[in-house]
Amino acid sequence: MNRGAGLDERAHARQRWAARVSLASAGLAVIVPVVAPWSGVALVLIGALSIVVSMAALWWALSRRGLLRAAAVALAVAAPTTSITLFALADLLYLPILLFALWALAVWTGKIALSGTRSRVVPVTEYETPPPARPFLIMNPGSGGGKVERFGLREKAQALGARVHLLGTGTPDGAEDVTALARAALADGADLLGVAGGDGTQALVAAVAAEHDVPFLVISAGTRNHFAMDLGLDRDDPSTCLDALTDGVELRVDLGFAGDHPFVNNASFGAYAAVVQSPEYRDDKVRTTLDLLPDLLTHERGPTLTARVEGTDGSELVLDTPQAVLVSNNPYRIDDVAGLGRRERMDLGVLGVLGVQVEGAAQAAGLLRGRQAEGLTAVTAHRVLIESDKDDVEAGVDGEALLLPAPVHCTVRPGALRVRVPRHRPGVPAVKPPLEWRRLRKLAATVGRTALPKHRRPQSRP
Asked: Rounded CA gap, 157 and 135, in Å?
């Protein structure tokens, strides 16, 4: 047996045993409450009910004020606390701990087993292009808590031959138009545009780069750096992004638009967009959110929205009076807690659409079902039209609060943006397939036989 075949056989054996452990753990998690004392079965049902009650109480807490909000918060805390107390009084506190451990083991080993199977995600194609001769970089010194100065980004970029402009230094009042700066740099001969700052600034300059078909450099010097994360860049040390100036490759990614406003991540409409419009939001985010949410969630304040979604299959979906709609440049993962907020690909040429339509506590509790929840819509689309009963629509575009004329046409331009990234970078974490029990059963039963190389498989007699 050659070495490669031996490694493959051992890998398949690990898959087989991981699948078996996952199925066994899940089976035990189902059997344990059944064989436990009748009081244990009852308490498990009470524990599940307490979670549902807590979700409903959280809805009341967000959609009510005063004494009703205080009572809802108390109920959200009391429900699980009472359940745990009952387990302790019955000397069965080990039961929820054991069930949690068994389900955690089942999910963990199941992911290990399925991760060894062929991935359905194709890596983004990298293009070899010559390094830029006259790069121009815009840096925001205040972004990310002062990362530009802390990591010496200006000095390092200049040492690599880049021309750097620090925002806030070009005008007496410190206010500058980054779009105008980017256009002026291109007119002066720049052959690459880059930004060290937040995603809102990234999007504005990226649109100019896409318009003129020049490469764009992302430097992860913002606070959250969602765009950099989905490009596989190092978010801990933004100076590593500068390596792309000398040893880099290009990626072709999509660019989203809400009307004429570009976005690299998403555009949000509804409750969140209305909250960030408030002048008090930046000074006290939590208090402002709690003050505004009751009216927004119950449609007593803010615009009444309708989202018309043109699906990738040509169908049309209409979301009437949603509390929130998130339109993203390529879809976010929502089927795996570890992948929430991430995009597997940014070159699919589609928009992701997440709509939330919760009309009461029952639907709020139903959100525990995840993607199958009645109040949650998750689809991909080519175009989205956001209509409103008002002349303007409040929007959050890559975190920036905007007021857009209604209706708002959201579109995506496939492959519009050339992004230059370092050749050697952390990369996007490997995509783990969803947990499918049918596939696990098949792996547990057949991997051991099908994994054998052909020359090792038993031959049928003639």
From this structure: 9
